[in-house]
Design a protein that fits this description.
Strand order of the largest sheet: 1-2-11-8-4-5
Shape: elongated
Number of strands: 11
Radius of gyration: 14 Å
Largest sheet: 6 strands, mixed
Number of helices: 0
Helix content: under 10%
Strand content: over 45%
Length: 113
Amino acid sequence: MQQISRSIYLVEAKEIVTVEVDAVKVGNFVTFSLDGASVDPSSNAPITYTFKVTVDAGLTHFGMASSHFPTSAPDDAMYQIYVSGDKGGDRFTGSDIKKPDLLWRRGIEFRRA
């Protein structure tokens, strides 16, 4: 896996991708979908989602992390997204979602090399 930006990654065929969402000063009020379908978490501490790359070369998987902040969460509460793959690369720091943001969701592209 290679990181192009905080929201775009190059992935390989059949790569197992891991998306971790670290909740800071807030509970795990987050979901993840891939290509419009919900993905069940594989772990809850931190909340973690995994999937296998199935698109052909030149195509893209589209992910969406959606979150919620209860009114009781402090203004500096946030979700930090981390992305990694099993075919090399690193544990990349992805986008963050902060309570003061206008949109509490982030799109992530997984482009097949």
